[in-house]
């Protein structure tokens, strides 16, 4: 399998197209997800990211009426989906691996599953806090920050496992990490956020994928600041076309980002979500044209299960 950084260097400056998909809720038909992204294969994504999800505590009412709080992993299956993706679409899968909800040993085992499947890319993340908790807490025996998981994967690449006494056959993972043009919510300020990002790169991250943004200036400033901090790895912009009016508040709240006033005004002036979706497509096309001119290595789209709008943007760009 090919490393994301090799895809980028081999493209000789040509911007690539890639997407991220989310595993379906447990019990749903996986083919619906695959059918929804099939039209995007026309734009030849060399790799497809698959997100990773922790268990969440949910309240279940027992037959005797007592409410019991139980852990449920609503979206399992990342490793299996990666295997099927590679088989069905002949693309490289980039599974995400997270700290939250997993011990280091559990993660080591997952990384071996990926290695045995021939997967050489991982996007290493901390993960969000449990919904019921509000603040992030590592599982006993787990990592607190993505940088610690970067170290674990880098060590595996050197043949160093958690509990093995002798060196083992090394893995060869290309490591991606997340970056936040509008600052990560938990970071006290931009300075510390850049410091922590630089640390992830120093510890072995080979490239960065950004949180979604709707104002390109935020990405340009982010890249300039990273370069000034000595971060030289590729910085892939993450993009999502606005699709509904509600997303103006939902995405802003979940991902801690600001929508440009012009986009907000345009979207709010439309009567239906069908029209808002069109506004999102037009905005996305303009965003991509500008990013293309800037020379970004990849335009990486968060599909969130629906791909028609991403396809329409890609048609204009690739
Ligand atoms: P970190 O790099 O660990 O940073 C988290 C916070 O801690 C930041 O504020 C940082 O500044 C701070 N920090 C870092 N190191 C230190 C330190 N040593 N001391 C003090 N503070 C520190 N979530 C999922 O659950 N599954 C996914 O598949 C997933 N995919 C994602 C893909 C992308 C491209 C992005 C951008 C996010 C994704 N997320 C996913 C969400 C992500 O897990 C959250 O944004 C999470 O809150 C932070 O993850 P991180 O890897 O950036 O964490």
How many strand segments? 10
CATH topology: TIM Barrel
Strand order within the widest sheet? 1-2-5-6-7-8-9-10
Specify Rg, calculated over alpha carbons: 20 Å
Outline type: globular
**Number of helical stretches of at least 4 residues:** 11
Helix-strand string: HEHEEEHEHEHEHEHEHHHEH
Output mean pLDDT. 96
CATH class: Alpha Beta
CATH architectural designation: Alpha-Beta Barrel
- Based on secondary structure, the structural category is alpha/beta
Explain what you see.
- The model has no long low-confidence stretch (mean pLDDT 96).
- With 318 residues, the chain is α/β, with parallel strands linked by helices.
- The chain is built from 11 helices and 10 strands.
- The chain is 40% helix and 18% strand.
- Strand 3 and strand 4 form a beta hairpin.
- It has a single domain, classed as TIM Barrel (Alpha-Beta Barrel).
- Helix 5 packs parallel to helix 6.
- The protein binds flavin-adenine dinucleotide (FAD).
- Flavin-adenine dinucleotide (FAD) binds next to strand 5, helix 5, helix 6 and strand 8.
């Amino acid at each position: 399998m090919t490393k994301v950084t090799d895809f980028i260097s081999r493209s000789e400056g040509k911007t690539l197209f890639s997407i991220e998909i989310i595993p379906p809720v447990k019990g749903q038909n996986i083919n619906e997800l695959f059918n929804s992204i099939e039209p995007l294969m026309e734009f030849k994504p060399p790799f497809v990211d698959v997100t990773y999800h922790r268990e969440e505590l949910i309240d279940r009412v027992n037959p005797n009426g007592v409410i019991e709080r139980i852990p449920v992993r609503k979206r399992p299956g990342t490793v299996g989906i990666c295997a099927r993706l590679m088989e069905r679409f002949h693309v490289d899968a980039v599974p995400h691996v997270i700290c939250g909800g997993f011990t280091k040993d559990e993660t080591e085992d997952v990384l071996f599953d990926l290695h045995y499947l021939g997967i050489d890319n991982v996007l290493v993340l901390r993960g969000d806090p449990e919904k019921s908790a509000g603040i992030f807490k590592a599982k006993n025996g787990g990592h607190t920050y993505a940088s610690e998981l970067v170290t674990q994967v880098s060590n595996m690449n050197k043949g160093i496992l958690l509990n093995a006494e002798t060196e083992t056959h090394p893995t060869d993972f290309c490591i991606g990490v997340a970056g936040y043009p509008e600052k990560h919510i938990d970071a006290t300020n931009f300075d510390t956020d850049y410091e922590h990002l630089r640390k992830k790169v120093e510890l072995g991250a080979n490239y960065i994928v950004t949180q979604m943004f709707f104002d390109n200036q935020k990405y340009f400033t982010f890249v300039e600041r990273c370069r000034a901090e000595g971060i030289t790895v590729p910085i892939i912009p993450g993009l999502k076309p606005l699709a509904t009016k509600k997303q103006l508040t939902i995405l802003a709240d979940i991902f801690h980002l600001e929508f440009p006033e012009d986009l907000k005004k345009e979207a709010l002036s439309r009567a239906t979500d069908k029209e808002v979706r069109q506004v999102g497509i037009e905005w996305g096309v303009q965003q991509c044209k500008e990013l293309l001119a800037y020379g970004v290595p990849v335009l990486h789209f968060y599909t969130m299960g629906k791909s028609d709008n991403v396809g329409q943007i890609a048609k204009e760009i690739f």
